[in-house]
Amino acid sequence: MYTGRELVSPDHGYEFDLASGTVTPEETATWYVSRTAGEFLVADNNDAHLGQDTRLGTADCLKGLETRPTTRLGFADLAGRAFCVRGQDGRDLAVVRLLSAAPGDGPVRVSVDYYRRSGN
Asked: Is residue 93 within 8 Å of residue 3, measured between CB atoms?
């Protein structure tokens, strides 16, 4: 769908809309990654996996989601690493890389790759 899309959330009142590749006001996207001052949050009906480095591909994500899912995505843990988020229906997959995070509730910049499996 898209790769390398850079997005900036100015503060915690905004979230990353993974399907559209945009930044939207909090609680307006159906598939998203939101954030606090120190971590990313995914919807309860989504799965996440934290990769070993920034070269996280779709096969790595799918394997990691099955064997090593995570619920903690702290900014401090993301230095040099990417994470992936699988949508509720299992067809949508996003790889997110933290590019920068200002202290406190300042801007957070990410790069997102979005993949969608076609078919039934």
From this structure: no
- pLDDT on residue 103: 87
Which pLDDT tens digit goes with each residue over 17-69?
999 999 999 999 999 999 999 999 998 899 999 999 989 999 999 999 999 99
Rg (CA), the chain: 13
| DSSP states of the chain | -EEEEEEEE-STTEEEETTTTEEEETT--SSEEEE-SSEEEE-TTSEEEE-SSS---HHHHHHHHHHS--S-EEGGGGTT-EEEEE-TTSSEEEEEEEEEE-STT--EEEEEEEEE----
Measured at the CA of 98, the angle between CA 95 and CA 100, to 5 degrees, comes to 160
Q: What are phi and psi of 34, to 5 degrees?
A: -105, 180
Contact between 53 and 81 under an 8 Å Cβ cutoff? The reply is: yes
pTM of model > 0.90: yes
